[in-house]
Design brief:
Order of helices and strands: EEEEHHEHHEHHEEHEHEHEHEHEH
Distance between the termini: 29 Å
Largest sheet: 5 strands, mixed
Strand content: 15-25%
Number of helices: 12
Helix content: 40-55%
Structural class: alpha/beta
CATH topology of the largest domain: Rossmann fold
Mean pLDDT: 86
CATH architecture of the largest domain: 3-Layer(aba) Sandwich
Strand order of the largest sheet: 1-2-3-4-5
Number of strands: 13
CATH superfamily of the largest domain: Flavodoxin domain
Radius of gyration: 21 Å
CATH class of the largest domain: Alpha Beta
Number of domains: 3
Low-confidence stretches: none
């Protein structure tokens, strides 16, 4: 291992080159911990600071932390991941504050423990990573926000350092957030419900999702007594990610697929875009910018989709050896 700049942030990191794959294994506090830069990305120097804007780096860091939270020890930063991250929405300010509060709780050895921080120390880099911050002032602003909400007790020490302690109200707030959170292995599938697409779903999309360790859910395959729109919204909320296939027939675009993909994006739920290759020209310009899997047959769809899911989300709990 060698001490080198973090490929994403340029901050201190430890890097080990993996000769078998040509990739790099990186340990970077500023990027949220361990990650791997794939060989193709490494060779093309796609990750370095000059190639990504600050907001994309911040969202990529959030993605890395999310992967760790879902049990992926060493997420892989690949071409597909970077392209997908470019279209993720930024965390809302309240979400960023909650992530920072969660970090402080995780660093506390006991209730009432005091967490010291300084702009020049590793802990502050980790706080920046968890709160999707670019500038140090953002972290300090979020700390002050948490202090005003009564979730932490903040004590400045000098111009660039301080002590933070998670309050009882802060612990209660995080407990309530966790009660609402759902760690799901479900993948919602949005697509054209037409006989011509049965093979694409049965032999391509569904088995690809299972190959990656997740369970597909298509709304026409679920028993429901409520309005179908309510069921769609509920199932998307319960899902780890959405697969949206934009293949259309002579009747035109499938409005429901666009709606469901957009709704998932609004919730910051990852969306993987697919489309039959011959129909890709008909995809609406609003979504054409996304990195679609253009497939010609179901075998190709199954293979490419399974790889994309594992690359961008990590393997699911049902992944078989």
């Amino acid at each position: 291992m060698a001490n080198s700049p973090c490929p994403i942030w340029g901050t201190p990191a430890t890097i080990q080159h993996i000769f078998e794959t040509g990739s790099d294994r990186v340990e970077s506090p500023r990027a949220g911990g361990l990650y791997i830069v794939s060989g193709e990305v490494r060779d093309d120097c796609l990750v370095p600071r000059s190639r990504l804007d600050d907001q994309t780096k911040a969202r990529l860091t959030t993605w890395l932390i999310e992967q760790h939270r879902f049990g992926v020890e060493c997420p892989v930063v690949s071409y597909d991941v970077i392209e997908d991250i470019k279209h993720h929405r930024a965390l809302r300010v309240d979400e960023r504050a909650d992530r920072l509060l969660e970090y402080l709780e995780g660093e506390s050895s006991f209730v009432g423990d005091e967490i010291s921080f300084d702009r020049d120390e590793i802990s502050f880099m980790e706080m920046s990573a968890w709160s999707e911050s670019v500038e140090p002032d953002e972290v300090e602003y979020l700390l002050q926000f948490l202090d005003r909400r009564g979730f932490i007790e903040l004590e400045p020490v000098g111009d660039s350092s301080g002590i933070a302690k998670v309050s009882v109200d802060g612990h209660v707030h995080l407990t309530k957030l966790r009660e609402k959170a759902v760690v799901s292995s479900q993948a919602f599938v949005a697509m054209w419900f037409d006989d011509s697409m049965k093979e694409a779903y049965g032999n391509g999309i569904a088995p690809a999702i299972r190959d990656a360790g997740y369970e597909p859910m298509r709304i026409d395959g679920k028993d429901h007594n409520n309005k179908i729109d309510d069921e769609i919204i509920a199932e998307i909320r319960r899902s780890r990610f959405v697969v949206a296939d934009f293949t259309q027939g002579a009747s035109g675009a499938r409005g429901g697929v666009y709606y469901e993909a957009g709704f998932a994006h609004g919730l910051n739920i990852p969306v993987i875009f697919t489309c039959r290759a011959e129909a890709i020209k008909d995809v609406h310009f609003d979504t054409r910018q996304y990195n679609h899997i253009a497939w010609n047959d179901t075998d190709e769809l199954r293979s490419l989709l399974a790889k994309r899911i594992s690359a961008t989300l990590g393997d699911g709990p049902g992944k078989k050896g």
